[in-house]
Amino acid sequence: MADLKALYQEIILDHNRNPHNFRVIEGADRAVDGFNPLCGDHYMVYLKLEGDRIVDVSFKGSGCAISKASASVMSTLVKGKSKAEALELFESFHHLVLGEVKDSAAIEMMGKLAAFAGVSEFPARVKCAILPWHTLKNGLVSETTAVTTES
Ligand code: ZN
């Protein structure tokens, strides 16, 4: 289990150093501002949609390693997915970082998302991890252009 934790930490550090889809999408269909005032994480999430499908997703901004790695992993996972599939991933991730997924096999099944399982032990970090997903969700289901973890 110690090795697994080290691996997960490595995944987070790697995504923080080299975030995927860290760019602006010109002419994005949705651009949502996400802010976590408790930590100072602040990102724009950009979405390019075709009907029900997320054909491109990116983010730009700054924040702690957890929030940036979470945004990076989120962007790689939801690209090409339908809105419903992306929202399902959001729910799974939410349960994971709240510590509601207890079974280690179930956690491992979550692939890259599993790297954030340890976040549940640090309540102050949960909002950092969930911020990019929260911002994505608002881009998919509402007309909101700005969200905060404290609303
Ligand atoms: Zn943070």
Short description:
The chain is α+β, with helices and mostly antiparallel strands and 151 residues long.
Written overview of the protein:
With 151 residues, the protein is of the alpha+beta class. It has a single domain, classed as Sufe protein. Chain: A. Helices cover 46% and strands 20% of the residues. A four-stranded mixed sheet has the order 3-2-1-4, covered by helices on one side. Strand 1 (30-36) and strand 2 (41-50) form a beta hairpin. Helix 1 (2-17) crosses helix 2. The structure holds zinc ion.
Topology:
Layout: H1 2-17, E1 30-36, E2 41-50, E3 53-62, H2 65-78, H3 83-97, H4 104-108, H5 123-141, E4 146-148
Parallel strand pairs: 1-4
Antiparallel strand pairs: 1-2, 2-3
The protein binds zinc ion.
Computed Rg: 14 Å
Small-molecule binders:
zinc ion
Q: Class by helix and strand content?
A: alpha+beta
Strand order of the largest sheet: 3-2-1-4
Mean pLDDT: 94
- Taken from the alpha-carbon principal axes, the silhouette is globular
The biggest beta sheet is recorded as:
4 strands, mixed
CATH architecture: Alpha-Beta Complex
Total E-strand runs: 4
Number of domains: 1
Keywords, separated by commas or semicolons:
four-stranded mixed β-sheet; 5 helices; about 150 residues; Sufe protein. Chain: A; globular; alpha+beta; binds zinc ion
